[in-house]
Design goal:
Blueprint: H1 3-11, H2 24-30, H3 34-58, H4 67-89, H5 91-97, H6 108-116, H7 123-153, E1 155-156, E2 159-160, H8 175-196
Helix pairs in contact: 1-7, 3-4, 3-6, 3-7, 4-5, 4-6, 7-8
Length: 197
């Protein structure tokens, strides 16, 4: 497969959230506002990109028996970098995302791509895979966040859009709303996929 095919695959065909159902914990927890969704998606993309590049470059030097601990060390290095940068430059977002930033280390999207792709592929394809999966994850989080924030608060990016004529469905910004939104969007995308096939 080429660079473009790998990139496109993560966004559409193998979207981590809507097709593979990976990374559901942060998806459900942080998508109360679109700022949080985009912040979490971009943080995960950065970690995915950095770890895929390093793992792909080192794939022939990491012994098979210790590959998982080696992957975790590489991934945690990038997570620590993201955590410190967010704390320094976007402290409000850092506080809003809280424990879910350090938990990127054990996010199954990151570990899955390290094991299934970066450890077996050249660097350029690993970059494409990381960007594709990262963009797919960011778009998914942003879409769920948009629905939850707009219908649950009547706002988007904090701007009041609907409150003058709409009574917000507060349940959508609560934990059950995450499951409802995710389930409805999954059903919608499965329906669209079924129609295309």
């Amino acid at each position: 497969m080429g660079f473009y095919s790998e990139l496109k695959k993560g966004i559409f065909k193998d979207n981590p959230t809507f097709r593979l159902l990976l990374g559901i914990c942060p998806t459900l927890a942080v998508t109360t506002s679109i700022k949080n969704g985009i912040g979490m998606g971009l943080s995960t993309t950065f970690v995915l990109l950095g770890s895929n590049i390093c793992i792909s470059l080192l794939r022939n030097f990491i012994p098979y028996k210790i590959r998982i601990p080696a992957f975790i060390v590489i991934i945690s290095t990038f997570v620590t970098l993201v955590d410190l940068l967010m704390a320094a430059y976007v402290p409000e977002l850092h506080e809003a995302l809280g424990i879910f930033i350090p938990l990127i280390v054990v996010n199954c999207i990151i570990m899955g791509r390290a094991e299934a792709f970066a450890s077996r592929s050249p660097v350029l394809l690993s970059i494409a895979d990381a960007f594709g999966m990262g963009i797919g994850f960011t778009v998914s989080l942003s879409l769920i966040s948009l629905v939850r924030e707009l219908l649950g608060s009547g706002t988007v990016f904090g701007f009041d859009l609907l409150n003058s004529f709409y009574n917000p469905a507060v349940i959508l910004v609560l934990p059950p709303g995450a499951f409802l939104t995710m389930g409805l969007l999954l059903g919608f995308f499965n329906y669209i996929s079924g129609r295309r096939n």
